[in-house]
Amino acid sequence: MARRKSGNHGGHGWFVTFADLMALLVAFFVMLAASSTQDQQKLQAVAGSMRDAFGVQHIVRYSGIIEASGLPTRPKLKNAAHIPPEEASANPTPDQHDRNRAAGARLKEDKAFALASATLRQALQDMPELTEISRHIMIEETREGLNIEIVDQDGRSMFPEGSREPYERTRRLIEKLSGPIKAAPFRLTITGHTSATKTASRPGFGPWELSAERANVVRRILEEEGVPTSQFYGVTGRADILPLFPDDPYIAANRRVTITLMREEPPLPLDFKP
Q1: Count of structural domains, the chain
Q2: d(Cα 18, Cα 84) in Å, to the nearest integer?
Q3: Closest CA to 123 of 177, 161, 85
Q4: CA-to-CA distance for 208 and 192, rounded, in angstroms?
Q5: Contact 264, 234 (CB under 8 A)
C-alpha cells in the first residue's frame, strides 16, 4: 500500500520574510536620499514624524562626559542648553571660539617645549669635555613645565658638601645651559632640594638655607650669562620635603637644583573685554 504524501505548501515561506526585509531596506535608503539635502522644512517634518512615532519626552536630561584616565576630555559640556531644532545653527558659539584659541595656544606651547628640550640636549652633546657631567642632567616635561634637574650622584656631587657655591665643572655646565634657556620664551623658577640626613646641621644654617642659597647661586650664574632678570619668576629652597625618590629620601640623587621653564596660561588677546 503506497504511503500518502504529506501536503506541501510550496516550500517558499522564506520568500515572504526576504520580501519584508527588502521593503525595509528600500524604505531606509529612500529616507537617506530624502535627508541628503537638508533644509529647515525637511528637518521639521522629520522631527514631527519622530515625535508622532515615539512620543514626546517632556523632561530633558543631559548626559555628561565620562572621564577616564589617559583619555582626552573636554573642560565642559559642548552644548549645555536645550536648543529647539528650528533655532539650531552651524555657527560656532563664543565659548567654542575660546576653546579653539586655547587649543591652538597649547599646541604652540607644546612645540616650543619640544624645541627647548631638543636644544638643551644638543647643547650638552656639543661639549665633549662635559660628557661625563652631563649625565647629572635630567630633562623632563611635566604639568608645571619643562624641568631641568641638576642632580647629584653617588660619589659625584655638583656642590661641595654643605657649600652653596658649585664646583667649577658644575658652573660651566650651568653656563652652557644658559643659552637655550635664554632663547626659550618662558619664565623660570629655580628650586633647591637637599636629601634627608641623619646628621645635625650647624646652627643657623640648615637644609632650608642651603637649598635656597644654592638655587639663588644658580640664578646668579644664569643672570651673569645674559638671562634677563625679568625672566625669573621665583627662587625657592624646599629642603628635603620633595625628594626625587620618595622611597629612599637619603640617596644622593635627591640633592638637586631644578630649573623649570614654566607652563603658563596664554596671554589675553589685545581686544579682550571682561
Answers
A1: 1
A2: 39
A3: 177
A4: 9
A5: no
Band (pLDDT 50/70/90 cuts) for residue 38 is low
55: left (phi over 0), alpha (psi -120 to 50) or beta: left
Tell me the per-residue pLDDT of 155-195, one tens digit each, with 9 for 90 and over.
788 999 889 999 998 998 899 889 989 988 889 999 999 99
Q: CA 139 → CA 179, 230, 252, distances in Å? A: 16, 23, 18
Domain region containing 257 = 101-262
Give domain status of residue 34, yes or no.
Answer: no
| Mean of pLDDT values over 67-77 | 39
8-35 pLDDT, tens per residue?
A: 555 567 777 888 889 999 988 887 877 6
Tell whether 114 is covered by a domain.
yes
Query: In angstroms, what is the C-alpha Rg of the chain?
Result: 34
- pLDDT number for residue 70: 39
Does the structure show a pLDDT above 90 at 273?
no
Asked whether residue 59 is domain-assigned, the answer is no
Q: Which amino acid does the sequence have at 106?
A: R
Strands in 256-262's sheet, in edge-to-edge order, are: 137-141, 145-151, 256-262, 188-193, 232-237
Report the distance separating Cα 232 and Cα 257, nearest Å.
15
Helix, strand, coil % over all residues of the chain, rounded to 5: 45, 10, 45
The closest alpha carbon to 148, from 111, 179, 169, belongs to 179
The residues that bridge with 137 in the sheet, in sequence order, are 150
- Assess if residue 225 is contained within a domain: yes
Contact 165, 159 (CB under 8 A): yes
CATH of residue 168: 3.30.1330.60
Read off the amino acid at residue 164.
R
